[in-house]
Design a protein that fits this description.
Layout: H1 4-9, H2 18-29, H3 34-53, H4 56-65, H5 69-80, H6 84-116, H7 124-130, H8 134-156, H9 167-180, H10 183-194, H11 198-226, H12 231-248, E1 254-265, E2 270-279, H13 286-301, E3 304-313, H14 314-333
Parallel strand pairs: 2-3
Antiparallel strand pairs: 1-2
Helix pairs in contact: 2-5, 2-12, 3-4, 3-6, 3-10, 4-9, 5-6, 5-11, 6-10, 8-9, 8-11, 10-11, 12-13
């Protein structure tokens, strides 16, 4: 049994709704959207052109556009939280983008270009992904592992990033590193089909699968697991939130819209619960309600919770709207 001070420090603590936010990000990351498809198309066009031109700069530009950070994180978080739907969804989204869109579109682009530019063939940039040496394979895997680790470190080294919109800027930078391992090999698969070199397509496919495994299952998961992210922490957050919500429903004149329960885990058995409560009138004691919620959390979740409740009276809001409407009515008469 670990000492309590060590146990409390092992994990991502002190961030409001941290594990729930991770799950929500993973759910979004495992969902295929029109925006995702559009970004993959743009990245594939750039990558194919860069590979055929033998331009490393254009290939790097395609990495800046490729949107593979979100599905990679979905796989990682889905595995850690043992959520098969998120895990499979992340893999499907990745391979749908890389193969169904990336490889196929690259083949179509190469086929059309060869109709008008017959001398289009393999280039050194293509061979780098299609015929890699043993050293290049090892280094590519190392790059994929480090990219996955960087994606997870952004969530645990500074966990408050997860709750701020500007954290997306950091994700965009790391996403470029993630795309290094994915979009160029996917484009090479399609190019190899068209130029009549299926062995190059097969080699690129094997490199792509190896990179995906290294990125998702080695680099990303290992960092989050070592940092103490666990499914039980997510379940504890949800349990505390459900307990508080169940008690709040019994509050007289409770209004669900606009009410919220935020949970900040401080350790395995300590939490802060911030409640924003909307009700039509206040006919109850806040300290009694807070004590009841804290006692119920301790009883059902075995967690000591400090509960803070903020009351938002809907009567005040209605009064403001009525006053504003009355003021406009008087002005219209004038």
């Amino acid at each position: 049994m670990l000492p309590r001070d060590i146990e409390v420090n092992f994990g991502a603590w002190g961030v409001r709704n941290y594990h729930t936010t991770l799950e929500q990000r993973a759910i979004a990351g495992a969902t295929i959207t029109g925006g995702y498809i559009s970004m993959v198309v743009a990245a594939t066009v750039m990558a194919t052109a860069g590979l055929l031109l033998n331009s490393a700069a254009v290939v790097i530009g395609s990495m800046c556009v490729a949107p593979f950070m979100a599905p990679s994180r979905a796989v990682c978080i889905g595995a850690l939280f043992r959520n098969g739907r998120i895990l499979v969804g992340g893999f499907v989204k990745q391979f749908f983008g890389l193969l169904a869109i990336g490889a196929c579109l690259s083949a179509v682009i190469t086929f059309v270009l060869r109709m008008y530019i017959p001398d289009i063939d393999t280039t050194p940039e293509i061979l780098l992904r299609a015929m890699p040496s043993g050293k290049e394979v090892v280094l590519n895997v190392l790059i994929a592992v480090s990219a996955g680790a960087a994606a997870s470190l952004a969530l645990v080294a500074h966990p408050k990033i997860a709750e701020h919109p500007w954290g997306q800027a950091i994700d965009a930078v790391i996403g470029v590193q993630v795309a290094i391992s994915l979009i160029p090999p996917a484009a090479v698969i399609g190019i190899g089909w068209v130029v009549g070199k299926p062995e190059q397509s097969w080699n690129a496919f094997c490199l792509l699968v190896l990179n995906v495994v290294a990125l998702d299952l080695v680099g990303s998961i290992s960092v989050l697991a070592i940092s103490g992210v666990r499914r039980r922490h997510l379940e504890l957050e949800k349990s505390i939130r459900a307990i508080a919500a169940g008690i709040l429903k019994g509050v007289p004149h409770f209004v669900a819209i606009g009410s919220s329960v935020d949970v900040t885990l401080l350790g395995e058995r300590d939490a802060i619960v911030d409640i924003r409560l909307r009700c039509q009138n206040r006919g109850f004691a806040l300290d009694t309600l807070a004590h009841e919620i804290g006692a119920e959390v301790m009883n059902k979740a075995s967690c000591q919770a400090d509960v803070a409740i903020e009351i938002v009276s809907t009567i005040t809001c209605i009064g403001i709207r009525h006053s504003a409407a009355a003021g406009k009515h008087k002005m219209s008469k004038l």
